[in-house]
Amino acid sequence: MADNTQLKADIAYVRAVAERSRTKPVRPIYLLWAMIGLCGFVLVDFVDDKKWISIYWLFAAPIGLALSFWLGFRAGRNQGATSRETGIRHSLHWLAFMTAGVLGLALVHAGQLTWQGFGSLWVLLLALTYFQLGLHLERRLLPIGVLMGAGYLVTVWVPKFGWTATGVVLAIALVTGAYLGAPKSETAG
User: 91: helix, coil or strand?
Assistant: First the structure.
């Protein structure tokens, strides 16, 4: 009986390793966030009334998150190889990012952080989120995390068009990540 239990555990381990090694990016999610991020970051440099930035993210982030969950669920169902557990991990990972960012509002309301600093805090959290997801679930996100770490520094120290530059880098990195590692038959279309 112990041999049977060990065999089942070994098979489960091999299956988990195989699934992690062949994850394909859900291209529409990468492209969606490339567009959302680029538009939102550009707003910071070009909109005089900063309330529009808050309004944009108030709607874009939850809608993008909901669309991402739906696209991820649909892709997992179509691929047949993606486990429900991996989908839940991705979802919880991004929900934790959103929650940490919203909790950062307490720093603003307590007077310990400016609104400008709050925006940069989101970029820092984004960098950490991409990097950790790259470490634990999807390797192609590691460089995006590193680039967003550099983008965080740009948003802090480059006063003119730093946000736009960071948004462009994020968009390029996400579009590249969407096609990185995809089989040749997928990249042709």
Answer: helix
Compute how many other C-beta atoms are within 10 angstroms of the C-beta atom of residue 54.
13
Q: Which of 25, 22, 19 is nearest to 186 (CA)?
A: 25
Average pLDDT along the chain, 189 residues, taken 10 residues at a time? 71 62 75 96 92 93 92 78 73 90 93 92 95 88 94 94 95 91 48
Assigned domain for 151 exists: yes
**Structural domain for 50, as ranges:** 25-187
CA distance 142 to 133: 8
**Is residue 116 domain-resident?**
yes
- Within a domain: residue 164? yes
* Distance, CA of 95 to chain centre: 10
Q: What is the DSSP letter of 113?
A: S
Q: What is the pTM of this model?
A: 0.79
In a domain, 129, yes or no: yes
> Do residues 145 and 132 make contact, with C-beta atoms less than 8 angstroms apart?
yes
